[in-house]
Amino acid sequence: MESLIALLEQNEIFNPQTLLHYWDGLVMTVQLVFLSLVVGALISVPLAVLRSSDNPWISKPIWVYTYIFRGTPLLIQLYIIYYGVVYIEGIQDSMFWPVVKDAFYPCLLAFVLNTAAYTTEILRGAIATTPKGEIEAAKAYGMSWGKMIRRIVLPSAFRRALPAYGNEVIFMLHASAIASVVTIVDLTGAARDIYAQHYAPFEAYTFVAAIYLCLTFGLIYLFKYLEKKMLAHLRPLS
Amino acid sequence: MIDFHGYGPSIFQGAILTIEIAFLSLFLAVTLGLLGAIAKISKNRIANGIATLYTTLIRGVPDLVLMLLIFFGGQMLMNSFTDMLYDKFEIDIFININEFIAGVITIGFIFGAYMAETFRGAFQSVDNGQIEAGKAYGMSQTQIFKRIMFPQMMRHALPGLGNNWMVLLKTTALVSIIGLADMVRLASEAAKAVHEPFTFFIPVAAVYLLLTALSELVMKKLEIRYSAGVVKG
């Protein structure tokens, strides 16, 4: 421990000031990722239900949305929203201007739309694999469509979607690094600032890579635990 | 027709560069992935350890951070290496890591880790009896690999491989951040110059969409080809 303190005192890069900057970046990254995942998940549930509809007029438009957002790079989506929002007619005079002037909200919007598209497809896959017997049983009980979706289809679909959703969460954490491109000081942005200040790219980026690694392992562990709890009924005996 | 204000041809050049980077890094990724997978299923503990370290570390860090690390950090390392050469041996050289090589190496290196996991799973799902049958026929190790393991492994690996390719294709957009003049960078420069972001970014997005749609088609064809001989239930 003492040697660690001595090391921290000796080197010029990891002083309290830069560590605090990294901390601010960490807070920003966690905020961005958490908010976009929550909002994205909320949007994706109704979309996934509609996407599973047999009526092509309902399911096809949602397919187009997910296809476009999954088929283009997130960076382009971010650029379109971040640079494009300024050019919307009359936005600078509207009440939305203070909100979109900051890079945070356009960035959040891009992340939400992106993760909602992926999550919708994950959930759709899970809904499609609902055992037929369960739906028949729900109908035999005289459940309405809404009740059936709420009580039978969604709870089991959420469980089956869990492993794929875990990957999506990690993907989102990693994708959030591009927020630094549009002037947001997230973890990667903090590393860029510190690199510019001390001209020490190797130290600055390796440190930030280590933080991301810890976050990723934390998430992997969390989802392993959740899977063990929620998917206990699917585990092979013995 | 859309008015590109004369930026059309250069963005087209950028699109070709994007495709070049994608294919070169795919080649590197598949090579690294095969090596990694073979190391992971081998009984050699050192090879196994290195491959496991490689796949876990790479898959835990964002691709942008790795790219910046290799591009900026790699240049610093290279500089101190050439400085050392000059100090010790009076050899005066300057090695410049250019954006293109940094981009290809980083993307190849990152997706090599994902490919290794895909291939490892695929190798393991080849039926052991088939390999034993190969041995019983007196085939050599390379023959077994070439004739039995590889073709069947590909069948299992294809869906994952296709997925990785799509993600790789979209990741190439990140090379614009380290200064490579791919179509994303050229489009963003043009968009800033004439203040028309939609005119440039939407066609670029459409090109990516076209590339992923085409890839999907090719993957379907390949999957049919490689599942020849599979009895469908």
Automatic annotation (TrEMBL), chain A:
SUPFAM superfamilies to which the protein is assigned, alphabetical: MetI-like
Subcellular location(s) per record: Cell inner membrane; Cell membrane
Taxonomic source organism: Litoribacillus peritrichatus
Entry membrane topology: Multi-pass membrane protein
Name used for this protein in its record: Arginine ABC transporter permease protein ArtM
Stored InterPro entries: AA_ABC_transptr_permease_3TM, ArtM/GltK/GlnP/TcyL/YhdX-like, MetI-like, MetI-like_sf
Sequence similarity: Belongs to the binding-protein-dependent transport system permease family. HisMQ subfamily.
Domain ABC transmembrane type-1: 26-223
Transmembrane segments: 26-50, 62-83, 103-123, 169-192, 204-223
Pfam families: BPD_transp_1
Alphabetic keyword roster: Amino-acid transport, Cell inner membrane, Cell membrane, Membrane, Transmembrane, Transmembrane helix, Transport
UniProtKB/TrEMBL annotation, chain B:
Listed SUPFAM superfamilies: MetI-like
InterPro entries named among the record's database cross-references: AA_ABC_transptr_permease_3TM, ABC_transp_permease_HisMQ, MetI-like, MetI-like_sf
Domain of life (superkingdom): Bacteria
Record-linked CDD domains: TM_PBP2 (cd06261)
Regions crossing the membrane: 12-39, 51-73, 93-116, 157-180, 200-219
Keywords annotated in UniProt: Amino-acid transport, Cell inner membrane, Cell membrane, Membrane, Transmembrane, Transmembrane helix, Transport
Major subcellular location class: membrane
Topology with respect to the bilayer: Multi-pass membrane protein
A matching Pfam family: BPD_transp_1
Gene3D superfamilies linked: MetI-like
Domain spans labelled ABC transmembrane type-1: 15-219
Annotated compartments: Cell inner membrane; Cell membrane
NCBIfam families in UniProt: HEQRo_perm_3TM
Family membership: Belongs to the binding-protein-dependent transport system permease family. HisMQ subfamily.
Protein name (record): ABC transporter permease
Naturally occurring in which organism (per UniProt): Litoribacillus peritrichatus
